[in-house]
Design a protein that fits this description.
Radius of gyration: 17 Å
Number of domains: 2
Mean pLDDT: 93
Number of strands: 2
Number of helices: 10
Helix content: 55-70%
Structural class: mainly alpha
Strand order of the largest sheet: 1-2
Order of helices and strands: HHHHHHEEHHHH
Shape: elongated
């Protein structure tokens, strides 16, 4: 496994943003959804998340109420203390991390709260579910920093030709 599918993938992802957007907008959604599990499996087999961790270093997941309860319990903290210590409310009204990189990211790119992590983290990069289509703006952003999303989007582009 590698952390980059090939050199300069981020430049290619940037150049292909419009093609990705067209694909997500115009593709046969049911056909595309059927392809996602296999493409996700292939991409996650090629990319080692622990060598990258760009998601944890640059972005914050949403922390929903069940996430906050689970993580606070895991950290043996009161929910209010957890919120005050680690979270803020963003422009969409969601709880997100106050700081980057994620305070739970260890030096070896492992997650200190992995077993209790937010559902957004557990589901990321959404390449095996309909979020890839339903939240195209998010998918385009994710393709710019996550090599797994990039690989899946490139395969979908190839197959759409």
């Amino acid at each position: 496994m590698t952390d980059q599918p090939f050199p300069h993938w981020q430049k290619i992802a940037s150049e292909h943003q419009k093609a990705y957007a067209r694909l997500l907008q115009k593709a046969n959604q049911s056909k595309l959804l059927k392809r996602l599990p296999d493409l996700h499996e292939q991409a996650t087999g090629q990319i080692d998340c622990l060598s990258c961790a760009a998601c944890c270093k640059n972005y914050s997941p949403r922390f929903k109420t069940p996430d906050i309860k689970r993580i606070a319990k895991f950290l043996q903290m009161k929910e209010g203390v957890f919120i005050d210590t680690y979270l803020r409310i963003d422009e969409d009204g969601d709880y997100v991390l106050k700081s980057k990189p994620c305070p739970f990211l260890e030096v070896d790119n492992r997650c200190r709260i992995y077993d209790a992590r937010p559902s957004d983290c557990a589901r990321f990069p959404y390449t095996d579910e309909d979020v890839l289509l339903k939240r195209a703006k998010l998918t385009l952003k994710n393709a710019s920093f996550c090599p797994i999303v990039f690989v899946v989007m490139e395969k979908l582009l190839e197959e759409s030709d």
